């Protein structure tokens, strides 16, 4: 079967990454013997007119069009699916990704799609395509929603998570515009964030996260962490280096929490050392899994940056988010990483229920204690966001139950950007006050960083002056 897979465009603010989820689906289809074409509209940056013209020129060429989507992609996907159905009403369309898994019934009701994949799509899409080729009943395929000939929407039983990730086929990188991903400049992905760095290669070693934070979506990967064998991940790295060589500057692990299973992380680092791989890599970690010996080993084998969702320095806010972390625990873990020589990328959010000047002050105090002159240049980037109730999260379910989101279509179409806007204010304080709290936090943390830099420069200047006497 000839299949077209589409990665829709995100906002211009977002940088271009190799789309791992879509690539896994493409790999599964290729392994199944199907002809696969990929349009990464996000990377190619086609206009809406260009995308439709390209589809018109190839009308009838594809038996199935598959579209992946995140929550922010909803306006585009709504427009695109309706547009291609006008051009070719008989075109079969299947939708997957986080948005599809989070809101399957809503999307089947609002969009002219024929099938929807819930959960991990690797196996499900292949089973669906096989069923369509046989002209059989799609109701036998686990993990989908579909329309009957009468137009009725039906859902099948969930498909179990893939327990053995060694079953995943190789990724078909040649189907994707690799020159764009490896040529795109990425602000903040170089040490100390002092220039734009290109050559960032997406990779993933595990699926799943055991934590139940209120704001996280587990509808695809689930709660049980599942790891690929460390040797298999190292082989993928070697293969990528053989293909793309020095164009790859950094391997960027997209795992929810790569550093959770410490034994796996140690095995991975030791494998890199044994293979003599001199690479540079970045990953997510959880504060409860941090220990000095492991962080040092990671640093020695090329890990230069570790990312943490700190969210807040207020224990009350952390508890409200169901973060499962203590403030002192986070502080200790971050200091351990800094002592091991790693740089940090931190994520902070503002706007949880009960957010106030007091809780923001507690977060400022957290950074006052964490950032010192000796480690100030180890803070690669600190991102500040407004709390966002993404579909598929417990937070979204809660605000819907409470009537705070009455029109899901309007909420998704509005498309607020949490860097600058308030997606939904549940803090209890007016919008203007909440915006002011976020600005205060950003300003004060910036001042802390500048103060520590100035202090360090003064100390170094004094040392230099004394040595010159």
Break the fold down into its secondary structure elements and pairings.
Layout: E1 2-7, H1 20-31, E2 35-40, H2 41-44, H3 48-57, E3 64-68, H4 74-87, E4 93-96, H5 98-102, H6 104-110, E5 115-117, H7 121-133, E6 144-147, E7 153-155, H8 178-181, E8 186-187, E9 196-197, E10 200-203, E11 206-207, E12 226-227, H9 230-244, E13 250-253, H10 262-274, E14 281-284, H11 292-300, E15 303-311, H12 315-320, H13 327-339, E16 343-350, H14 357-370, E17 379-386, H15 394-401, H16 408-414, H17 431-468
Helix pairs in contact: 1-7, 3-4, 9-10, 14-17
Q: Could you walk me through the main structural features you see in this protein, from its secondary elements to its overall organization?
A:
The chain has 469 residues and is an alpha/beta fold. The protein has two domains: 2-155, Response regulator (Rossmann fold), CATH 3.40.50.2300; 182-467, pyruvate-formate lyase- activating enzyme (Alpha-Beta Horseshoe). Helix content is 41%, strand content 16%. The protein is built from 17 helices and 17 strands. The strands form four sheets. A seven-stranded mixed beta sheet has the order 2-1-3-4-5-6-7, sandwiched between helices. It is globular, with a radius of gyration of 23 Å. Mean pLDDT is 94; it is low at 190-195.
What's the quick description here?
It contains 17 helices and 17 strands.
**Largest sheet, spatial ordering of strands:** 2-1-3-4-5-6-7
Q: What is the CATH topology assignment of the largest domain?
A: pyruvate-formate lyase- activating enzyme
General form: globular
Number of helices: 17
The CATH class assignment of the largest domain is Alpha Beta
Give a count of the beta strands, DSSP E runs of length 2 or more: 17
Task: Write down the oligomeric state.
Answer: single chain
* Parts with pLDDT < 50 across at least 5 consecutive residues: 190-195
* Sheet with the most strands, sense and barrel status: 7 strands, mixed
Mean pLDDT: 94
CATH-derived architecture of the largest domain: Alpha-Beta Horseshoe
Give the count of structural domains: 2
Structural class: alpha/beta
Distance between the termini: 79 Å
Cα-atom radius of gyration: 23 Å
The portion of residues assigned to helices is 40-55%
Percent of residues in beta strands?
Answer: 15-25%
Corresponding CATH superfamily of the largest domain: tm_1862 like domain
């Amino acid at each position: 079967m000839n299949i077209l897979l589409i990665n829709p465009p995100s906002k211009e603010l977002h940088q271009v990454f190799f789309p791992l989820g879509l690539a896994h689906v493409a790999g599964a289809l290729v392994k199944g013997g199907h002809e696969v074409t990929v349009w990464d509209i996000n990377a190619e940056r086609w206009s809406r007119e260009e995308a439709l013209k390209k589809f018109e020129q190839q009308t009838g060429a594809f038996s199935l069009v598959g579209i992946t989507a995140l929550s922010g992609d909803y306006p585009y996907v709504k427009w695109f699916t309706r547009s291609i159905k006008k051009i070719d009403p008989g075109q079969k369309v299947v939708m997957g990704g986080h948005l599809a898994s989070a809101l399957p019934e809503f999307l089947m009701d609002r969009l002219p799609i024929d099938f929807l994949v819930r959960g991990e799509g690797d196996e499900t899409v292949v089973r669906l395509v096989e069923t369509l080729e046989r002209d059989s009943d799609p109701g036998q395929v686990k993990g989908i929603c579909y329309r009957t000939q009468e137009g009725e929407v039906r859902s099948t039983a969930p498909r179990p998570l893939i327990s053995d990730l060694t079953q995943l086929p190789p990724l078909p990188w040649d189907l994707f515009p690799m020159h764009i991903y490896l040529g795109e400049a990425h602000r903040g992905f170089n040490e100390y964030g002092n220039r734009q760095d290109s050559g960032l290669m997406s990779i993933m070693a595990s699926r799943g996260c055991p934590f139940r934070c209120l704001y996280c979506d587990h509808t695809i990967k689930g709660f049980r962490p599942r790891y690929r064998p460390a040797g298999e991940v190292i082989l993928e790295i070697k293969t990528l280096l053989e293909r793309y060589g020095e164009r790859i500057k950094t391997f960027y692990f997209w795992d929810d929490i790569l550093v959770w299973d410490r034994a796996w992380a140690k095995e991975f680092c030791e494998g890199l050392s044994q293979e003599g791989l001199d690479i540079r890599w970045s990953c997510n970690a959880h504060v409860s899994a941090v220990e000095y010996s492991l962080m040092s080993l990671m640093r020695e084998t090329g890990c230069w940056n570790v990312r943490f969702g700190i969210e807040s320095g207020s224990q009350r806010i952390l508890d409200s988010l169901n973060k499962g972390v203590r403030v002192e625990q986070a502080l200790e873990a971050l200091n351990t990483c800094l002592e091991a020589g790693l740089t940090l990328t931190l994520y902070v959010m503002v706007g949880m229920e009960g957010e106030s000047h007091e809780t923001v002050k507690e977060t400022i105090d957290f950074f006052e204690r964490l950032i010192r002159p000796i480690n100030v240049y180890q803070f690669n980037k600190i991102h500040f966001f407004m709390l966002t109730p993404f579909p598929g999260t417990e937070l979204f379910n809660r605000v819907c139950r409470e009537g705070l989101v009455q029109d899901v279509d309007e909420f998704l179409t509005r498309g607020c950007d949490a860097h600058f806007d308030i997606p939904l204010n549940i803090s209890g304080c007016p919008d203007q006050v909440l915006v002011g709290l976020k600005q205060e936090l950003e300003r004060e943390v910036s001042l802390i960083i500048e103060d520590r830099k100035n202090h360090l420069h003064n100390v170094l200047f004094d040392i230099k002056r004394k040595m010159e006497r």
